[in-house]
Specification:
Alpha-Beta Plaits; alpha+beta; 57% helix; SH3 type barrels; single chain; five-stranded antiparallel sheet
């Protein structure tokens, strides 16, 4: 309720209470019950508004709100029982059935939201994948989880769906060092040593333990690329994006089938938003660097040998 409406409602309730107390001829006990309910309702509005502005923890605000509403309900039903016990029993029975049927999904969402917030499987600003959506967690409420995907689209996922689905978390607490890998390493032996250095970093406590986002993409390289030039071409792009991600991306070869090469590229950053904002540009630059000769002014995108490249560039590789 807007602040202006709340103020007007308080004024109306105060006037009504004043009239009931001084000018009504109803039972004195009933007058006191009505006045107590008016006072409790006004205090409820004031406390909830202050708590929403002062308290930062959503769980604390939720528990406080539930507690205040329960106390308020006790006073309301006390008044109703005094006026008409049979009517009060009927009202309670109706409310129980209505809540169980109408708000079943909302109750499940709230319960799932509480479990998500208390379990801390993932937090706001983490990069996750859930329900087929990859993106940054921007907010977790008692009804939904707000995720912004790689295209900048905000998606609201019901908490019950998030809680019941498997979640892939790219952001986690990992130890990671500051040292770099020698850019001049070449050949299969050197590549193996280089990969071992990166893997070793994840298990070592060098200087700090912060949240690290590690995003992985598997790419298929077309047979036009000379394997001897692959490392050099990728290194040009990796060095460029080291300043953006904070760590230099790296890759390793998975398999080669019929002239095609499958590689895994890992992007590491302490800032998940940088991964979301720049991953498409990063993959695009990889495609352009690997197929620089084809990406020229006079190339024909209708040729069969360029069809795969067109699809890769349009899809961000």
């Amino acid at each position: 309720m807007k602040k202006l409406y709340q103020i007007l409602l308080i004024i109306v309730l105060v006037i009504a209470g004043y009239w009931i107390y001084f000018y009504s001829n109803i039972d004195q006990t009933l007058i006191y019950l009505i006045l107590v309910n008016i006072v409790v309702y006004v205090l409820r509005m004031i406390i909830l508004r202050i708590s929403n502005q002062v308290l930062k923890g959503k769980i604390i605000r939720y528990i406080l709100s539930i507690t205040i509403n329960i106390i308020w309900s006790v006073f309301i039903f006390t008044l109703l029982f005094y006026v008409s016990p049979n009517f009060s029993v009927a009202i309670i029975s109706f409310l129980i059935v209505a809540i169980s049927l109408t708000f079943k999904e909302r109750i499940n969402n709230i319960a799932s939201g509480v479990l998500i917030l208390t379990s801390e499987d993932f937090e706001i600003t983490d990069l996750v994948e859930t329900n087929g959506v990859q993106g940054i967690v921007e907010d977790i409420t008692l009804n939904y989880t707000k995720v912004r995907d790689f295209n900048g689209i905000t998606i609201f996922l019901p908490n019950v769906n998030v809680f019941n689905a498997s979640t892939k978390k790219f952001t986690s607490m990992e130890s990671f060092g500051e040292e770099d890998v020698d850019d001049e390493e070449k050949g299969s032996k050197e590549e193996t040593l280089r990969l071992k250095k990166y893997v070793k970093k994840f298990g070592e406590f060098v200087s700090k333990e912060d949240k690290i986002t590690r995003y992985i993409r598997i790419l298929e390289i077309l047979p036009e690329i000379n394997p001897m030039e692959l490392n050099k071409k990728l290194d040009n792009v990796f060095s460029k994006y080291k300043k953006i991600f904070g760590f230099k991306p790296f890759y390793y070869v998975n398999e080669t089938i019929l002239g095609r090469c499958s590689i895994t590229v890992q992007v590491i950053s302490e800032k998940p938003k940088n991964v979301v904002y720049f991953i498409n540009a990063f993959l695009r630059d990889i495609a352009i660097e690997l197929y620089k000769e084809q990406v020229q002014d006079k190339w024909d995108p209708q040729k069969a040998e360029n069809q795969n490249l067109v699809k890769m560039v349009e899809a961000g590789l």
